[in-house]
Write a structure and sequence with these properties.
The protein is mainly alpha-helical and 107 residues long. It has one domain: Multidrug-efflux Transporter Regulator, Chain: A, Domain 2 (Orthogonal Bundle), CATH 1.10.1660. It is 47% helix and 10% strand. It contains five helices and three strands; from the N terminus they run βααββααα. About 5% of the residues have low confidence.
């Protein structure tokens, strides 16, 4: 069924922020909006759905760097579980970031 999607719906459906959506549209990489009235625009649902279907599937396991990143994240989670939910990392960043000097910043 043909529907007109407003910006909020398009952002929710695609998972792309409004500013990025506008950038893609300007470059011709996303369907053009339709003028509905003097102050309202929308996108055809069929065009947005076709754009989503045209996106290439991402397979993370083909990228060695991503695999290494996943392994590090899993190791951190295991370490957290062993330490009762407190990461050693949270205690090693004393005086860094927004925390006052001498205070430990909790991540």
């Amino acid at each position: 069924m043909l529907r007109i999607l407003r910006r909020k719906e398009v952002v929710e459906i695609t998972g792309i922020g409004a500013s990025r959506l506008h950038e893609l549209e300007l470059r011709g990489e996303f369907p053009a909006r339709r003028q509905l009235s003097a102050r309202a625009v929308g996108w055809l649902s069929t065009e947005v759905e076709a754009w989503i279907k045209s996106r290439e599937a991402v397979v993370a396991y083909d990228n060695p760097a991503h695999l290494a990143q996943l392994a590090r994240a899993q190791a951190r989670r295991r370490e957290n579980a062993r330490n009762g939910g407190t990461s050693a990392r949270s205690h090693s960043r004393e005086g860094e970031g927004c925390a006052a000097p001498g205070r430990v910043r909790r991540w």
